[in-house]
Amino acid sequence: MLRRSSDSTGKAVWCTIPGPLRVKNRLPELALTIIGHLKSSGHYRHQQVPELHGLHFVEKGRGVMRANGKDHSVGAGELFVFFPGTHYIYHDFPQSPWRYHWINLEGAAVDRALAHVGITADSPRLQLTHPGAFEGFFSELMVEMKRSEVRPTYAVMAAWRLMDLIAKQQAWERKEISLAERARYLIDRQGFRNIRVEELAHELGVERSTLFRAFREAFQVGPKEYIDAVRLNDAERMLSDPGSSVKQIADACGFGNLQYFIRAFRKKNGVPPGYWRTARKRAAKQPPSIP
To answer: Final residue of a domain: which of 176, 201, 222?
Structure first.
């Protein structure tokens, strides 16, 4: 259940994640406990001595985090992490207010997992190569938290996915993952479904033509065709929801033009989306055949 608060410093929304499954009354090695989002008014200032590890992903703005007598400048596209037992004082700037997501982590392996991706109490800040991937991850978490039921294993799976995402960012920096694989990884993230090829190339720091050549060489299709295929798969899932119109689904999946969406859907499935939805609904109502 989402909770909300608002005062002169900003607005926050957060959710306590249902506790993960315990084995012999022991917690998993890594799990999420809380996820939240803060939108500052530009006068946010706070201090705390946390009991759990707290990871913050800054979407917008700039500010300062002070810990152990050292100031860390923290801005958009960066992670900063709080470690238990340390006194933190942090604030943003009025001319550049923060907007960030935060999560709390628990488990015996938290310190080890963070150290593996280069985050320690002495080095709690990390500049991200592709922050858009994190925007998609946190957006997906917030959507999941709005569901009436969340699987007990979700807190564990999401925590390890986050660590994997951070590790991939560092592998990208070291050029261990090809340009085409990086592009496909970003497209597959929920937050990048509406992206245009030009924006994707900019996110990856290359020219559009360079991305096109690398992607086609690796996967035998261009990035635009791949993006459309991912969007069409999303559309097929959404068509099972009777509360959404075809136009609403087209917009939600990143098809700015309804007629283009209908043509692309017909090309893949042989029929337009409205007919496809009706046929699926009719088939679902038919009783199973007796062998």
So the answer is: 176
